[in-house]
Write a structure and sequence with these properties.
Layout (H helix, E strand, L loop, with lengths): L47 H9 L1 H8 L5 H15 L4 H19 L5 H27 L1
Helix pairs in contact: 1-4, 3-4, 4-5
């Protein structure tokens, strides 16, 4: 059975699928220039360091978004426990945790209020300070 445009809807249509219409392709231009970005359109990543970091580490954000919701909290707890239990290797875990917390803080910085910013900075300093303490303790004993 044919529709008003003469294309069939059955298995004999060009697309091979009964309900799908064939796609129309635009003619390719041999020497077309890339379209410039609209200067009035806001950057989807946001301005400043947070936007730059989101652009550069977008693949990590995508990878984390594909993990189960419990993955990141369990990973953070394992890093923290590793930093508190295994001496002197705990400093490596603590510095890794510091980097992870700093990365997440930078990404969320534009939407944080002052209290949230202060708490996150204090947490990062505490974890980093404990890592430095581990290294100093290991080097002096």
């Amino acid at each position: 059975m044919a529709n008003s445009r003469g294309r069939g809807r059955g298995a004999n249509s060009r697309s091979g699928h009964p309900g799908r219409r064939p796609q129309q392709r635009a003619a390719a231009q041999p020497h077309s220039k890339p379209v410039a970005a609209d200067p009035n359109r806001p950057d989807p990543y946001g301005p400043g360091l947070s936007g730059w970091m989101a652009k550069k580490t977008g693949f990590l954000l995508y990878w984390l978004s594909q993990r189960p919701k419990w993955f990141l909290p369990i990973f953070v707890v394992l890093l923290l426990l590793g930093g508190l239990i295994w001496h002197p290797w705990g400093a490596i875990f603590m510095f890794t945790l510091t980097a992870l917390l700093a990365w997440l803080t930078i990404l969320s910085w534009p939407v944080l209020r002052t209290g949230g910013r202060i708490v996150r900075i204090l947490l990062i300093l505490a974890v980093f300070g404990y890592g430095v303490y581990e290294v100093a303790y290991y080097l002096t004993h």
